[in-house]
Amino acid sequence: MPFAPLKNDTFLRACWRQSTDQTPVWLMRQAGRYLPEYVATRAKAGSFMGLATNVDYATEVTLQPLARYPLDAAILFSDILTVPDAMGLGLSFEAGEGPRFARPVRDEAAIRALRVPDLERLRYVFDAVASIRRALDGRVPLIGFSGSPWTLACYMVEGAGSSDYRLVKTLLYSRPDLMHHLLAVNADAVAAYLNAQIDAGAQAVMVFDSWGGVLADGAFQDFSLAYTARVLQQLKREGVDGQPVPRIVFTKGGGLWLEDMRGLDCEVLGLDWTVDLARARALVGEGPGAKALQGNIDPNVLFAPPAQIEAEVDKVLNAFGRPHTDPSAAGPTHIFNLGHGISQFTPPEHVAALVAAVHARSRALRGN
Amino acid sequence: MPFAPLKNDTFLRACWRQSTDQTPVWLMRQAGRYLPEYVATRAKAGSFMGLATNVDYATEVTLQPLARYPLDAAILFSDILTVPDAMGLGLSFEAGEGPRFARPVRDEAAIRALRVPDLERLRYVFDAVASIRRALDGRVPLIGFSGSPWTLACYMVEGAGSSDYRLVKTLLYSRPDLMHHLLAVNADAVAAYLNAQIDAGAQAVMVFDSWGGVLADGAFQDFSLAYTARVLQQLKREGVDGQPVPRIVFTKGGGLWLEDMRGLDCEVLGLDWTVDLARARALVGEGPGAKALQGNIDPNVLFAPPAQIEAEVDKVLNAFGRPHTDPSAAGPTHIFNLGHGISQFTPPEHVAALVAAVHARSRALRGN
After folding, report:
1. For residues B202 and B181, what is the distance between their CA atoms, to the nearest angstrom?
2. What pTM was estimated for this model as a whole?
């Protein structure tokens, strides 16, 4: 049974650097704890993984923010660490803490034993993608995602979040050969995982390099960027319905390496709030190999009153400047987003103010 | 009684962009928990603040790393948060945790009540500076320091370290007027504090903007850089012995804003490991308003074996390239350091390998 035709293609058009009447907007972690309806569903599911592995619950929470706000894209509800979990590392989420692996990978034997996992172990993700896509009924496109090879490696070696990345960097600096092996396995696993999401119905895919920015200059290019490129190289270009699937790469803290990222074979670069969008547009938003830009307001802006939120939205839109408006050509485009995931403490009504401001002000910016 | 004449001026010469035979090296947090002799002294002192407020202990630990390694500078043993402590916020260090303020500053009344503290409350710092300077006996220069106005504000509002800076950024975005007031008081307090360190014998001063990098583009310039500039503007240019006192500014995560920092009235910019030293040298190391550059190896390199440490030292030295060698003129210079404080888990013998490699390889780089 084919999926319903897409009614709002603003996000996909912007990914392809095509003109749009307004700037599309979605929010990283838009289905999350700041929404009381999410908290209620999670309580029913019992745990984060109980939520992520249940197709009905995952579908329900993915659609929750769309019921509140006129967002221009949906993103699969899942976690960036499902792939190493399927490799056998044992993912769990303690209440009030981040993710944790029961069996971190810290010695040569453990690293050499790693394999691209049997994708059947991730069937729950692909089932969720298909279910969400049906439930969306063509309202907005669905984004699939994964952690980047390096970001997965950080958690796989550290076993949890880290303030100094001591264990994973000790491995990197002491045994670069082992680190390259680990990253190669991760890259091939991430590529297979994203391809299966595309086959299940994902209309765009995003690689979250959440910890690329902790690497030294030089190490970033060798140990993160090169393996993101290895993922991109293997990705399917066409979705299950024959439409092209744009690819987004987001390196938190990667603003210094935009010129290196220009060479990536992807359509969109995500940016955090430290980056000046005017500068990013000049560096990678135009000319050969140009990318659409996604981001980049500080999520903490959402704690200010609506009037200040609107002023900060204006700053971000104005920093990017007027997107191109020529319907017959590709040119600079901007997808509005946060520079990082939304905080669980965000007042939901402030999100409404942000989304409304992006649409209204970005129409005005185009003279619409 | 005048202080002893300086025997090793390599660090100060490099600060002033004068040629040196080898690249000077010191390490942020070089007197710290990775040294067993430090742990022993701290045990005698009972607590971190017990250590920092006792002149004899502070002198003892400051000199400990110099007894082990041929470092080219000493840095006052203290904490970046002494100034807000003197403002009455009640600083303490829990075992195994970071700093904590008993009375964080979170509302208008508390912010309006803040004053530049009576410097007599910081007498223990100035006494330590004088004592350390005497104990150094001219061996290497002594660096004094403070946290930047913004970095102090982060701790003053959050009350402790933070993963998201939600409280301080909520204040910044909701009540920028109050944040500016807080930062102005901090800037004037930091300037007075550093001037008193200079009067007590500090031969260089450093402003640690440890949390500047968490700010959004635009906010960094308005809420961090502007107040660092306000500090620099008020600093004494001449030390107690009539020598000029160079000023170092280090913004962790500030690599994107180097061109903005070029305008600072200081001599040296500190850089973390995300920055390519070749690029930094091209941007701010030469021409009018040029700065000496300090940094920037990843402290985690010190967990690798000595051969890898030497290879990584080479990468950093080579990225900067050959410093100028013209004794009659100013030109590009590099002060070797870590890109952040040394980890408590560092093997002390690895530090010896790093320091030796910097000196040997940097002499070779100059053809010496």
Report:
1. 29
2. 0.96
